Amino acid sequence: MGAVGPGWIEGEVKAEMLGVIAEAKDEGVSNRRSCDTLTINRRRVVYWQERQRAGLSMDNGQPGPVEAAHALLVEEREQVVALARVAEYADLSHRMLTVTGWVKGLTMVSFSTTYRVLCSAGLMAMRGHHRGHNGHSVAPVRKELSGPNQRWCWDISYLPTFERGVFLYLYLVLDEWSRKVIQWLVSWSLEAGEAKRLLDAGMVAENILDLPEEQRPEVVNDRGRQMKAKSVRRLFEEHSMPQLFARPRTPNDNPFIEAMFSTTKTAPEYPGRFLDKENAEGYFGKFFAWYDNEHYHSGIDYVTPAQAHAGLRAAIVAERKARMEQQRILRKEVNRHRQWTSGTVLAPRMPTEAIGGMLGYGSG
């Protein structure tokens, strides 16, 4: 028989070995010498003998505690479910719901935790108006961005009216790094003059002409006649802003503006059709104010575009991570109080009011 390694030994084998050691002891052989002969660590044998004397099973149990020390608290689970059932948040994905909980100070759990809780509560049907991405699009090769106003993307989208065949047009400029809407306008016509007016207003709003020429943003657009118009191309050349053209019939070359139009037109309150230009301007004025200042964007670590544009993204994400770790530590302490004492006896539950105070929100 070779040396007994550190691996698990079946209960029947343990009992047989203890029997051999007991018989040897009756013959005057010490436990230590028997262990040396059987090439097994003496501490393991002592532990088995203690369990045998206590009448406990010799079978191998699962290692570790029955529940993780940082397991989700009952109060946190109830708070996540309650948040998901609020009518105002019915269209939010589980990720956006999680971020909403962070911002409002109601919950501090991860995306995966929210997903599991919603699944267990039967609340994880498709949330929102988007379907899953097909995964076939390939982004074009672009230089690395490190801040706002390094690359803009812009395009024009049709807006149906109540008259068949008559459209309004939404002109939009987006900062690719922060996803902030730099400038927008609604027009009855597709003209280079309107595009030039849009871009001029964007440059003024972001003080682009005050920047050194080498720090001005490059601009990505498709090959529409408004984008290729001489007046527009001359505008970019005069202000030292490189103009990049997407490939024909390749929307993935300009994906951020396309995604922005998708977000705009699949919003729950999007009317679908507009009565006139004033009606459209009224809607988009409110929508883009919400988008820039209140929408937690999944592409920029769930901060708002305005926060990212102002350079606050890193600080906000770092603070969230610190709060998440703090909550994890607190969760372990609460669970330890409830579930473990020196032996297998459960500790008394902490008062609900005390837990709510520790967590920073009510127990409901």
Question: How would you describe what is shown here?
Answer:
The chain has three domains: 1-62, no CATH class; 64-129 and 311-364, no CATH class; 151-297, Nucleotidyltransferase, domain 5. The protein has a five-stranded mixed β-sheet with strand order 3-2-1-4-5, sandwiched between helices. The chain is elongated and about 105 Å long. The chain is 45% helix and 9% strand. It contains 14 helices and five strands.
CATH topology of the largest domain: Nucleotidyltransferase, domain 5
Could you tell me the radius of gyration in angstroms? 32 Å
The CATH class designation of the largest domain is: Alpha Beta
Helix content: 40-55%
**How widely separated are the two ends?**
62 Å
Q: What is the strand tally?
A: 5
Describe the strand arrangement of the main beta sheet, using strand numbers. 3-2-1-4-5
| Low-pLDDT sequence parts | 129-139, 342-348
Give the overall shape, derived from the CA principal axes: elongated
Q: How much is the average pLDDT?
A: 85
* CATH level-four homologous superfamily name of the largest domain: Ribonuclease H-like superfamily/Ribonuclease H
List keywords for this structure.
364 residues; alpha/beta; Nucleotidyltransferase, domain 5; 5-stranded mixed sheet; 14 helices; 45% helix
